[in-house]
Specification:
By secondary structure, this protein is an alpha/beta fold. The chain folds into 3 domains: 2-177, MoaB/Mog-like domain (Molybdenum Cofactor Biosythetic Enzyme, Chain A); 182-259, Alpha-Beta Plaits (2-Layer Sandwich); 264-416, Maf protein. Helices cover 42% and strands 25% of the residues. It contains 14 helices and 17 strands. A 6-stranded mixed beta sheet has the order 2-1-3-8-7-6, sandwiched between helices. A 5-stranded mixed beta sheet has the order 14-13-15-16-17, sandwiched between helices. The protein has a 4-stranded antiparallel beta sheet with strand order 10-11-9-12. Helix 10 links the parallel strand 13 and strand 14 (304-309).
């Protein structure tokens, strides 16, 4: 079943708000056989909304619209779509009373007059009760097709989507295909390999993956590989994804570290926990990003004991015990200092594993020998310590985030090779 999504909001077009609703809708409906073929974002303008919805219905006859259902003058979705369907707005007295009671009960005050417009419903439309807000969802059916209107507030949209729209699309998709078809995806997470390198590695295998398509999604943390099965029964889709994952993992090897939205930090913490080890970190250019990634994982306190953000040379000396003479001779961004920072973190916190990051994140501070993007990492596990130099292109934020990911990956390599010095990957 094909459908389209229209998100309404000038703030989306100006870039002040990220359009998370379209992502949520596409994922939820794909899981029950609804294929989103087009996504459009329009401003809070009546003509723009009407044109976008009319075009979507002309192409696919089913459209989901979010945003523009509030009580203010720029909320124009409902009257625009109601006019398109020839359904005049009428006051729903029962819903009006419910709104007024909700304001008295939860907000301890009378309902503002502007909220009265939210009780106006297109004649003949189906009302989807909104338990989290004042704007109900609406389903309009007519010769044009079906339009589902949902509020733009993500929490409210999500509730109505899963309670009402997902079952509706599941039934429609089953009626179209004659079976309970689904679109299933799975993501393999990789790091330490470029998008082109991953594509070259997997190109000989793609022809054998008859039921599964691949998409390469590069980012600061690595390249995500999305596997998708289109329009198959649920069990059939899961079987195809399992088989494809096995084939692809065997080819990618240790560059694949997780599935779905799994963070590399969680993989590292799990390995440390399994080895009965604790971890401390010492950060300079990353300024706490490594510690932040680790502590974002539930249960990290079982492994992670603490860290030091030693940004200045004085902090490296005073808080980590890095020798001043070493800093003077080698510079803060050097293999020797990275190693000393890791050893200092382990000593300070009494941990048996440590990570250290020091580098030139830019945009200034680079030299011919150590240009912007030069980063030294060090990872220690027990008596073994491994250092690695990176040259990371890009702006300051990219250098910092890529350094964080690479540091976690270096520690993962050290944990995976307990019998000796781990192999140095090409970077």
């Amino acid at each position: 079943m094909e459908l389209e999504v229209v998100t309404v909001g000038t703030e989306l077009l100006l870039g002040f708000t990220v359009d998370s609703n379209a992502v949520e809708i596409a994922r939820a409906l794909a899981a029950v056989g609804g294929r989103v073929t087009r996504r459009v974002t329009v401003a809070d303008d009546r003509r723009s909304v009407s044109d976008a919805v009319e075009g979507a219905l002309r192409r696919s006859r089913f459209v989901v619209v979010t945003g523009g259902l509030g009580p203010t003058s720029d909320d124009l979705t409902k009257p625009a779509v109601a006019q398109l369907f020839g359904m005049p707005l009428e006051l729903d007295e029962a819903y009006l009373q419910e709104l007024e009671e909700r304001f008295r009960r939860y907000r301890q005050r009378a309902m503002p007059p502007s909220n009265r417009s939210q009780a106006e419903v297109p004649r003949g439309a189906t009302v989807l009760p909104n338990g989290r807000g004042t704007a109900p969802g609406l389903v309009l059916e007519g010769l044009l097709g079906t339009a589902v209107l949902l509020p733009g507030v993500p929490g409210e949209m999500r509730q109505l989507l899963h309670e009402h729209v997902v079952p509706l699309v599941r039934d429609r998709a089953a009626a179209v295909s004659g079976r309970r078809a689904t679109i299933r995806s799975r993501t393999l997470r990789t790091t330490g390999i470029t998008e082109s390198g991953l594509a070259d590695l997997l190109r000989p295998l793609e022809a054998s993956l008859v039921e599964v398509t691949l998409a390469y999604l590069p980012g600061w943390e690595g390249v995500d590989l999305r596997l998708t099965v289109w329009e198959a029964e649920e069990q059939e889709a899961e079987r195809a994804l399992e088989q494809a994952e096995d084939v692809l993992r065997a080819a990618i090897g240790r560059r694949c570290y997780g599935v779905g939205e799994e963070d590399l930090a969680a993989v590292v913490l799990r390995a440390l926990r399994g080895a009965g080890r604790s971890l401390a970190v010492a950060e300079s250019c990353t300024g706490g990003l490594v510690g932040g990634r680790l502590t974002a994982i539930p249960g990290s306190s079982e492994v992670f004991v603490g860290g030091v953000i030693a940004y200045s040379n004085a902090a490296k000396i005073g808080n980590l015990g890095v020798p001043g003479g070493l800093l003077a001779a080698e510079g803060a961004v050097s293999e020797a200092v990275a190693r000393a920072m890791a050893e200092g973190a382990a000593s300070r916190f009494g941990s048996d594993a440590a990570l250290a990051v020091t580098g030139v994140a830019g945009p200034a501070g680079g030299t011919p020998d150590k240009p912007v993007g030069t980063v030294w990492l060090a990872a220690a596990v027990g008596s073994r310590l491994q250092a690695l130099q990176l040259r990371i292109p890009g702006a300051r934020a990219e250098v910092r985030h890529r350094s964080c990911q690479a540091a976690l990956d270096l520690l993962r390599e050290l944990l995976d090779s307990p019998g000796g010095t781990p192999p140095m990957p090409a970077r």
